[in-house]
Structure formats: C-alpha cells, structure tokens
Specification:
- The protein is an alpha/beta fold.
- The protein contains 12 helices and 10 strands.
- It has helices at about 35-40, 55-70, 85-100, 115-120, 140-155, 170-185, 200-215, 230-235, 270-285, 290-310, 325-330, 330-335, and strands spanning about 30, 40-45, 80-85, 100-110, 125-130, 160, 190-195, 220-225, 265-270, 315-320.
- A 6-stranded mixed sheet has the order 1-2-10-7-8-9, with helices on both faces. It has a 4-stranded parallel sheet with strand order 5-4-3-6, with helices on both faces.
- The protein is globular and about 60 Å long.
- About 50% of the residues are buried.
Length: about 350
C-alpha cells in the first residue's frame, strides 16, 4: 500500500487557504516503521499535530464553533468559554482570534507549563483551578459552566459554553472529517482503528464513520491506567483500573455523551511504563517528538495488532507535539521521581 503527496505526475503543489480554518484537517497518515515491523502489521498514525494549533483538538474546536454559529447560539463578537486540559482551549483561542470572538479557558493548574504559557501567549482569558474530581463543584468543567452563564448575562454579545465532553458537534466533525479521511487515505483497506479518549469525540466520530463503510473494522480503546473507560467497554461498569498516569488530556472516569456514541469492539489498559518507550524510540529512530497521548495510542495500536494478528492495517491518532510536555515527559528528574523510564539521551 503506497502513500504519497502531490499530484499524479509526482509534482508538489501548494493550495492557498483563505483563513486558518482551512488549515484544519486533511492531515496525512504516517507509516510507523518500528511498531509495524515489530507486529507484522501496517500501523499508521494520523498526523494531527500538523493542525495549526498543534493538536487534534483543532477539529473539535472548529466543529463546536460552526455548530454554535449555525444554531445562532454564538453571536458576532461573543465569547466562547471552555474547561479543558489545554489543547481544546488552544484551538478555540486561535479560532476565536481569527473569527472575531473572545475566549475564556478554564484549566487545571496541574497541566503542563508549556500549555499554560501557550494559552497566555495566544491571549486567552485563562483561569487556572485546582485539580479535583468531576463530582466536585469546583472541577474545571463545572467552573467553566458557571463562568459561561455569568458572561452570557453580563456581556453585550453574550457567551457560549463549548461543552466539548457532551457536545455532539465534537464527534460529528470527526465523523465528517477524520473518519472519512482515514477511509479515503487507506483506500478502504483499514482493518482497525484505536485511540484513547479525553472527551470521546475522536473515538466516537471515527468509529461511526468507519463502521458505516465496513462494520467489520475493529475499533479499539487505549485507556491509561487509573481511568474507567477500559472497564466500561468491557463490562459496562465505570470502575477505574489500578494505578495512575501522567498523560494529560486523556483518561476519564465518567461516560460523556460523546463516549456513549463510540462503537468499541475491544479495550486495552495501557500503563505509562509500557507507553513511554514508544515515543522515546519514535524520536530517536524516526525523528518525531510526540506527546503522551500518542504514546498511549501507539501502544494501543501494538496491542490491537497483536489481537488481530499480522498482515492487518491499523490506524491511530498522533495527537500533538512532545514539546508541549517537555517539562514532564522529557524531564529526567520528573520521570525518575515517578518511577518511569528515562530515554538514554536524557539520563543525568
């Protein structure tokens, strides 16, 4: 199976985009050499880090804004409020800047310094809150809802709460774009898809799109340790798995409206100890520096490949760049303190 860029003559072309929204999506599939050779499968990563905001969440942000515009909920000059682990906030802020809106982002203070710095650089109205359980009224999602309600009453052009976890515009844009792109890019020869969930939008949207083309495609969930979706898709119970994870933006303990739409055939629990070496090796041997969610996703793709056996084509999501987590994932002191593997070039 060959993958190429450009036109049929082999020449390359540059398309002119009218604004930043047209730079979102249509990301290439990247052949992951080491894990493909290890498993005897073709494992491909959707290069979502190439979106203008640097992550897969640009799609979510665009889908939510377009839906709010279409419904009339988002008025010109209005404010978009969201609770986020960072990447959706970055996407929303970039799009708000480009489309004449304002953005307010609520984020746990435990998220990486790099994401906090990025949001401040982009001009978001950033509110950092303590990390707490979803049942706590001070959880960042509930805080964002209260702020959206306050701004909606106070501001001339109103405000909307993006609600990425339960807003089905999230999964719908992945159904329309990400899933269809994967089908077309593989010429329909995809046997399996797997990724982690943060909101569930990517997994729900892609699984729905791919299953609509071929119900036999195997859809997998890769869940970090300490999250509950692994057990939910196995038994229907939202029971956390043992351990914990340092990975940001993925791993949840309640069933969101987006997760409820996901069509999952098999689930795997992935520890950080299992996942991290994949992104360290990817950087050293294939020249790509990716974040922790990509580590979980690649480990999940290996598990799915082992489940299906050699000769299959499996796609996963390469969510964002590793430099967004440099102070954690690529910090030897942090990793050692957590008892996690340290890449050899960072050993002090």
């Amino acid at each position: 199976m060959a993958y190429s860029s450009g036109n049929s003559s082999g020449d390359y072309y540059v398309r002119t985009a009218s604004d930043v929204t047209e730079l979102i999506g249509n990301t290439p599939l990247l052949y992951l050499k080491q894990v493909s050779e290890k498993t005897g499968c073709t494992i491909l990563g959707k290069a979502e880090f190439l979106n203008p905001g640097g992550s897969v969440k640009d799609r979510t942000a665009l889908g939510i804004i377009r839906a709010a515009q279409a419904s009339g909920e988002l008025q010109p000059g209005g404010r978009i409020v969201e609770g986020t682990a960072g990447n959706t906030g970055i996407g929303l802020t970039l799009l708000a800047n480009a489309m004449g809106y304002r953005s307010t982002v609520v984020m746990p203070v435990t998220q990486s310094k790099e994401k906090i710095d990025t949001l401040e650089l982009l001009g978001a109205d950033l509110h950092l809150v303590g990390a707490t359980s979803f049942s706590d009224p001070n959880h960042y999602i509930h805080t964002a809802q209260r702020l959206a309600e306050k701004f909606a009453k106070q501001e001339e052009n109103g405000a909307v709460w993006a609600r990425q976890f339960d807003n089905l515009a999230n999964m719908e844009i992945h159904q329309r774009t990400t899933g269809q792109e994967i089908w077309q890019q593989t010429d329909g020869k995809v046997d399996g898809f797997i990724c982690a969930v943060g909101t569930g939008g990517t997994l729900a949207g892609v699984s729905t799109a791919l299953k609509s083309h071929n119900a036999g495609i195997t859809i997998g969930l890769a869940d970090p340790a300490g999250a509950s979706m692994y057990e939910y898709f196995r038994s229907g119970e939202t029971r956390p798995s043992e351990g914990g994870s340092i990975m940001e933006g993925i791993g949840i303990n309640h069933v969101t409206d987006n997760v409820a739409q996901a069509k999952v055939d098999v689930s795997f629990m992935i520890t950080d100890e299992e996942a991290l070496p994949y992104i360290f090796d990817l950087l050293k041997h294939e020249g790509l520096c990716l974040g922790g969610s990509a580590a979980i996703n690649i480990a999940g793709a290996v598990r799915l490949a082992e489940h299906l056996g050699p000769g299959h084509t499996i796609v996963t999501i390469l969510c964002d760049y590793g430099n967004r987590y440099q102070s954690k994932l690529f910090n030897p002191v942090f990793l050692e303190n957590k008892g996690l593997p340290v890449p050899e070039w960072l050993v002090i």
